[in-house]
Design brief:
The protein has three helices and seven strands, in the order βααββββββα. It has 131 residues and is of the alpha+beta class. A seven-stranded antiparallel β-sheet has the order 1-7-6-5-4-3-2. α2 crosses α3. The mean pLDDT is 94.
């Protein structure tokens, strides 16, 4: 079974602008969910889901304007047991914008992987509009 989601997008905006959309709670709420994230290693936070299946997270890595990663603990859609995964965002500056890569790994169920794969695509479409 595939255990990770790997996606790459391009935005006609500098890394600083893309970084704001990944790290500012008031912007994150508009495309991913209500959160109390602070880009500080060790900070524990959550993304509040409308269906009650919140993601409990901890910041693992922060390299301003370049990389952000955090743990992602959520109930499995398959058996409702908690599982742990990791979300990593990598920003690469290009002459005319920013390449943004997402790697979300650690899935143990095909259903969770498929649900998140679809979910990330939908969220990033909202993200694009905010830029």
């Amino acid at each position: 079974m595939q255990k990770e989601i790997r996606k790459t997008w391009f935005f006609n905006h500098p890394p600083q602008k893309v970084w704001e959309c990944l790290t500012q709670p008031e912007i994150l709420e508009q495309w991913l969910g209500k959160t109390d994230l602070r880009p500080v290693v060790g900070h524990k936070f959550r993304f509040i889901s409308p269906n009650g299946n919140d993601a409990y997270c901890e910041v693992l890595e922060v390299v301003p304007f370049a990389r952000l990663s955090y743990s992602w603990q959520k109930k499995s859609l398959d058996n409702h047991q908690l599982y742990h995964s990791k979300v990593a965002w990598t920003l690469a500056p290009l002459a005319d914008g920013t390449e943004l890569q997402l790697v979300h790994d650690g899935f143990i169920s095909t259903e969770d992987l498929a649900g998140h794969d679809t979910g990330w695509e939908a969220c990033v479409k909202k993200f694009e509009v905010l830029l």
